[in-house]
Amino acid sequence: MKSFKFSAVNNPAEAITLINKNTDAAFLGGGTNLLDLMKEHVALPNEIIDIGNLSLKEIKATASGISLGALAKNTATANHPLIRKNFPMLSKAILAGASAQIRNMATNGGNLLQRTRCSYFYDIATPCNKRNPGSGCAALEGFNRMHAIFGWTRECVAVYPSDMSIALSALNANVKVLSSERERIIPFQDFHILPGAHPEKDNSLQHGELITAIELPKNDFAEHSAYIKIRDRNSYAFALVSVAAGLTLNGNTIQAASIAMGGVAHKPWRALNAEAYLKDKAATAANFAKAAEAEMALAQPLAHNKFKIEMGKKALINALETAFKGNI
Ligand code: SF4
């Protein structure tokens, strides 16, 4: 591992002042992804700023919903009574991710910032535009079974790995960010970005910005929500396909659907075509199937992941049926 300077800070202003002095510095939260990346020589910060002591761990009700502290642990968030009651989809998504040990260490802010698990990204002997811009994409013509079917470019076909973020996308969360100049709110749909020509960038956060909280607006679909994850083994595996779905119902009529997919794109993939199809339709098996068809018709599979199209349809239908039946 490359040597680095280590500092610990006690308030957000101190953290932001320090990181602004060094473009090669990185914040350390739970460290569950950053330390792996450093050990593999994929991330090479020359300075680590430990933000673990900052008072950003609170989970609390607000006038508009619930605020999750950026440094609250994933386990504490998933098991918090306010989250279990009002956002069960989020509890399920968090508990579907990683292992109990990792969830005990991982922070909410860090979960959003975790990097792709594309195996070529972690192998510094192979070309990878995300790790080394301009070097090429080994996955494009390589083994790409786990990779994207939506929104990819020839520069990068990786998928984003977080389960928590798929639920946050369907929940229309906002990310609260602090810098030396201002506080800003980033709508969740704009936080992560598609690869375009610059896959080295995963999200719209700027160097010098610190995530302080994730805001969850109130919704009226807690009782009719679901998170479905399909993976190679039942624990400690990333999604082949996942779906977070919430249905706002008036009897059997769907007033609105909120659906996001994981394991299919470089960011949480909002299933806008399925949502548009379901609006004001009856909640029937036939309409769920048509909505799934409408979404997956746009998929562009790679050589080894055509199976994700059928899997995506079935996962969408399963999530919609589960949400309709209700979880209370
Ligand atoms: Fe790198 Fe993206 Fe290609 Fe994977 S898919 S090798 S992360 S550029």
Structure description:
Helix content is 30%, strand content 20%. Strands 4-5-8-6-7 form a five-stranded antiparallel sheet. Strand 11 and strand 12 form a beta hairpin. It contains 13 helices and twelve strands. Among the domains are: 52 residues, Uridine Diphospho-n-acetylenolpyruvylglucosamine Reductase, domain 2 (2-Layer Sandwich); 101 residues, CO dehydrogenase flavoprotein, C-terminal domain (Enolase-like, domain 1). It is globular. Helix 5 packs antiparallel against helix 9 and helix 11 runs antiparallel to helix 12. By secondary structure, it is α+β, with helices and mostly antiparallel strands. The termini are far apart. Bound molecules: iron/sulfur cluster.
**Contiguous uncertain segments of 5+ residues:** none
SS content category: alpha+beta
CATH class of the domain at 225-325: Alpha Beta
The spatial strand order of the largest sheet comes to 4-5-8-6-7
Q: CATH H-level name of the domain at 225-325... which superfamily? A: CO dehydrogenase flavoprotein, C-terminal domain
CATH arch. level architecture of the domain at 225-325: 2-Layer Sandwich
**Distance between the amino and carboxyl termini:** 49 Å
Please provide the count of β strands: 12
